[in-house]
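As noted in the main text, all predictions were made from sequence alone. Below is one such record, for Protoporphyrinogen IX oxidase, menaquinone-dependent (Flavodoxin domain).
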Amino acid sequence: MSGLDNGSEPTILVCYGSSEGQTATVARRMRTALENEGHRVTLVDAAAHPADLEVGSFDGVIVGASIHGGSHQRPVTEFVRTNVDVLNRAPSAFFSVSLTAARETPAQRAPARGYIEEFLETTGWDPDATLVVAGALKYSQYGRLKRLLMRFLAGRSSGDTDTSRDYEYTDWEDVESFAREFATLLEPPTGSTG
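Prediction:
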C-alpha cells in the first residue's frame, strides 16, 4: 500500500543507471533532497535491482540514466519498458545525464533534449517531468584509451582537455529543485481529510 493511501509520508523509488558514477551521485542527491522534504526513498541501480521490486507499490518514481555513445544504459531502458504501464499511471520523472548538456550554447546543448525525446518514444513512457543534467569528465577513472578518446571529444567541443584532473558540470541546485518539484506531485489534494 502506498503512503498516500494510508496517511503516511509518500514513498518514492529512484532508479538509475550509471557508468562512471555521476548519475548515481545525481540519484543520491535527489534522494537526500526528497528525504529532507519528509519522503521515504528507495534508491536502486537498474542493473542490480531486486527481482521482487514492486514498482507499483511506490507513490512516485524517478528514473535516471546517462548517455554513452548516443544511448541511455540498456538496464534503464529495460526497466522502463518492463514497468511502463505503472510509470504512466503514477507520478513519474526522468533525468538524463550527459556531457552534451554541459556545452556552451543552447544549440550545442539541444541534442541532450533529443536523447530524452528518443528514449521516451522508444519506451512508450510519458513522465510528468524531465530534466537534462550536465555530467562530468572523470579522466582519473578512465583507462588510457578512453581518456584519450574523451580528451579528443572534449577538445572538439571546446571542452576541458587537461586529463590530470576531473571536471564536474552538474548544477546541483537544479537537481535538488527538480526533486523537490517532483515531490509536490505526491502531496495529497488540499481539503483531503485522510
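Residues 78 and 123 are 9 Å apart (CA to CA). Confidence is low (pLDDT under 50) at residues 1-6, 189-194. These features were considered when defining construct boundaries for the mutagenesis experiments described in Section 2.9.
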